[in-house]
């Protein structure tokens, strides 16, 4: 009898333990899944590291809703290499509750919190004016307090005197540009010609501007994409549902603040936005080559149908349009290569060849308004 009771207790204990384990698994599983999938990952390109940067963000130190440590934690979860907390210098709606006469505090709090973490914090601020010139971020600054200057051009001069990289924020923002069309004013032309403005947001939060891309290309401005996050990135960009925050991919000599600044000034960037890669051919070309790799290729027994593997080493879901002379057996002219995986393509080459060249238009990449870059994949065929 005693043994039976003991057995019963053991069984009950086991089932409680199992339940507990199950509960722990259920609670932890989404976290584990998230930490595996939400990190933004793109391969390096020849000669450069590909760094994920989100250089326009807000906290309670201007009109954001969170303390700076949350920005640091979000960035680490997303696999971001560098962030800048660019508080509005002139717009401080929380200052009655959170007085902070020193405009460097947001940076200092984030820097302190991140000191034992693998994240680069770049000191920045948002020069917030009516149009023109609108809003601009000055990053790599030394003292945000010194940017409190009435004359906007003088504020840009001060930022530049501190060694800043300055970029124009959301030039297509309907609140400042009711038609949503980014366009230079005389003041912008002056800022560019004097070397005081170096980049432009082509992507801001959940918006994109073809016209800003054209302005970047016509005026040698760096192409930028930023989250401009005020709330939580998980909510705004539906990260639990598979979304991602917009970022700037920066091609830097090394993973340091100085190298990021050098790369930004040299315009080596691509914006990553809603599964699209936006940049100049000179940066997009090498990135696409690093993302899409060819695998093994062989002919199906007794046929001239080639089986070839395409690998995707990136987070982009590639959408490719076939522009080569061959047709496919399993696909139409549009193929998709999911992130971090590979697909098998069956190509009807009509005769057995030693190598095959495939050309694709990359529909989720943009080199100028309406233009998608082409990629060539060359397969050497296994003759065994
Ligand atoms: Zn902003």
Describe the structure.
It is a single chain. The protein is an alpha+beta fold and 384 residues long. The protein has 2 domains: 37-274, Metal-dependent hydrolases (TIM Barrel), CATH 3.20.20; 291-380, Sandwich (Immunoglobulin-like). It has helices spanning 2-37, 68-77, 105-113, 152-161, 186-193, 210-218, 233-236, 257-265, 281-291, and strands at 49-57, 82-85, 120-128, 135-139, 165-168, 199-204, 207-208, 222-226, 247-252, 269-273, 276-279, 292-299, 305-312, 318-322, 327-328, 334-337, 341-348, 355-362, 365-366, 374-380. Strands 1, 2, 3, 4, 5, 6, 7, 8, 9, 10, 11 and 19 form a 12-stranded mixed sheet that branches. Strands 12-13-17-15 form a 4-stranded antiparallel sheet. Helix 2 packs across helix 3. The longest helix has 36 residues, at 2-37. It starts with a helix and ends with a strand. 39% of the residues are buried. The model is unreliable at 20-35 (pLDDT under 50). The site of zinc ion has 6 residues, from loops.
Q: How do you describe this structure in short?
A:
The protein is an alpha+beta fold and 384 residues long.
In the CATH hierarchy, what is the superfamily of the largest domain? Metal-dependent hydrolases
Q: Please, what is the average pLDDT?
A: 92
The total domain count is 2
Helix content: 25-40%
CATH architecture of the largest domain: Alpha-Beta Barrel
The end-to-end span amounts to: 71 Å
DSSP strand content? 25-35%
**Cα radius of gyration in angstroms:** 25 Å
Identify the CATH class of the largest domain. Answer: Alpha Beta
List low-confidence stretches. Answer: 20-35
């Amino acid at each position: 009898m005693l043994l039976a009771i003991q057995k019963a207790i053991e069984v009950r204990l086991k089932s409680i333990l199992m339940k507990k384990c199950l509960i722990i698994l259920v609670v932890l599983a989404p976290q584990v899944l998230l930490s595996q999938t939400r990190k933004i990952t793109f391969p390096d390109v020849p000669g450069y590291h590909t760094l994920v940067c989100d250089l326009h963000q807000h906290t309670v130190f201007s009109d954001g809703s969170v303390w700076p440590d949350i920005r640091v934690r979000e960035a680490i979860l997303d696999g971001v290499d560098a962030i800048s907390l660019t508080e509005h210098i002139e717009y401080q709606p929380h200052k009655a509750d959170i007085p902070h006469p020193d405009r460097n505090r947001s940076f200092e709090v984030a820097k302190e919190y991140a000191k034992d973490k693998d994240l680069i914090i770049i000191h920045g601020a948002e020069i917030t004016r009516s149009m023109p010139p609108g809003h601009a971020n000055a990053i790599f600054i030394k003292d945000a307090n010194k940017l409190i200057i009435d004359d906007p051009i003088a504020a840009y001069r001060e930022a530049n005197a501190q060694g800043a990289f300055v970029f124009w924020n959301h030039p297509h923002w309907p609140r400042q540009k009711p038609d949503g069309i980014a366009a230079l004013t005389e003041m912008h032309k002056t800022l560019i010609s004097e070397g005081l403005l170096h980049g432009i947001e082509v992507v801001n939060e959940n918006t994109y501007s073809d016209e800003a891309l054209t302005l970047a290309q016509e005026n040698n401005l760096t192409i930028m994409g930023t989250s401009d996050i005020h709330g939580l990135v998980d909510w705004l960009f539906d990260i639990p549902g598979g979304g991602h925050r917009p970022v700037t991919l920066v091609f830097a000599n090394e993973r340091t603040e100085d190298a990021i600044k050098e790369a930004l000034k040299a315009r080596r960037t691509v914006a990553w936005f809603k599964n699209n890669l936006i940049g100049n051919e000179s940066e997009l070309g090498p990135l696409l080559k690093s993302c899409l790799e060819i695998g093994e290729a062989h002919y199906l027994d007794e046929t001239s149908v080639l089986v070839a593997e395409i690998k995707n080493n990136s987070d982009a879901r590639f959408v490719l349009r076939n522009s080569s002379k061959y047709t496919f057996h399993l696909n139409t002219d549009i193929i998709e290569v999911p992130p971090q995986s590979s697909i098998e393509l069956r190509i009807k080459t009509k005769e057995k060849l030693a190598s095959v060249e495939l050309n694709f238009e990359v529909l989720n990449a943009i080199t100028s308004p309406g233009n998608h870059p082409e990629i060539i994949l060359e397969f050497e065929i296994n003759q065994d």
